[in-house]
Specification:
- The protein is mainly α.
- Helix content is about 70%, strand content about 5%.
- It is built from seven helices and two strands.
- It has helices at about 10-35, 40-65, 80-105, 110-130, 145-165, 170-175, 180-210, and strands spanning about 70, 135.
- The protein has a two-stranded antiparallel ribbon with strand order 1-2.
């Protein structure tokens, strides 16, 4: 059974973000059906807000966990952390493709792409480090923020799947790279981008579940066998 103590505020805030994300996606899908792409601007603005909120939550969580943790596992990274690093390469590739096009063509907004790059790099470092960390405090510091981050990544996954995964939605990229060029680039980077948000949600849930376990739960005990002399 999961212990959900000290997570209700982050859960409520995260659910609010999911609802607002669903609203922005609805506006985008309705406007796309009417061949009006103003809905994409609403999604871009909301995605930027999500990046800012998710980035702000990361240093706040680090500060709350600071000084109350110890390293449970030394040594190399596990499969999950290697996968998140691999997926990060796709996110970085996608952002750099778009930054290059916006910069060279002097079109589009660089703010969202830089925000995506900074937020994901910071989050990847957070996941890789705190994957093997445990805290000694019983009040579960930063659990509200980790819950919030978990739901933020679920919202990002919805945006990536329903909006950014559409080649036709990136008109500036098609004009700069050409339809075939951008199709190849996006088909390489976008699956990793989508996987990053999906796997980040899983990794943050594992951190949420395991970082607050007391050390006694991670120790194995060897039963004593009494031998009586006859």
């Amino acid at each position: 059974m999961l212990d959900c103590a000290n997570a209700h505020k982050g859960l409520l805030a995260g659910i609010g973000l999911i609802i607002l994300t669903a609203a922005s996606l609805t506006v985008y899908l309705l406007s796309s059906a009417n061949h009006n792409f103003n809905g994409r601007e609403a999604v871009d603005i909301w995605e930027l807000v999500l990046h800012i909120l998710a980035f702000a939550a990361l240093p706040s969580a680090i500060v709350k966990l600071w000084g109350s943790t110890y390293i449970k596992k030394q040594g190399v990274m596990c499969l999950d952390t290697w996968l998140i690093v691999l997926a990060q390469s796709g996110v970085s590739m996608y952002s750099l493709f778009k930054i290059t096009a916006f910069w060279m063509a002097d079109r589009g907004s660089l703010t969202n792409e830089f925000a995506r790059l900074i937020q994901t790099l910071t989050q990847t470092l957070f996941i890789v480090y705190y994957w093997r960390i445990r805290t000694k405090k019983p009040d579960k510091p930063a659990r509200q923020l980790i819950t919030f981050l978990l739901l933020c990544n679920a919202a990002f996954w919805c945006i990536n799947t329903l909006v950014l995964n559409r080649i036709s939605s990136d008109i500036e990229m098609i004009d700069f790279y050409g339809r075939w060029g951008w199709t190849v680039m996006s088909r390489i980077a976008m699956p990793l981008n989508i996987f990053y948000r999906f796997h980040s949600t899983i990794c943050l849930f594992e951190i949420w579940k395991n970082v607050y376990k007391p050390s006694t739960q991670n120790k194995t005990t060897i039963p004593l066998i009494e031998v009586s002399a006859t």
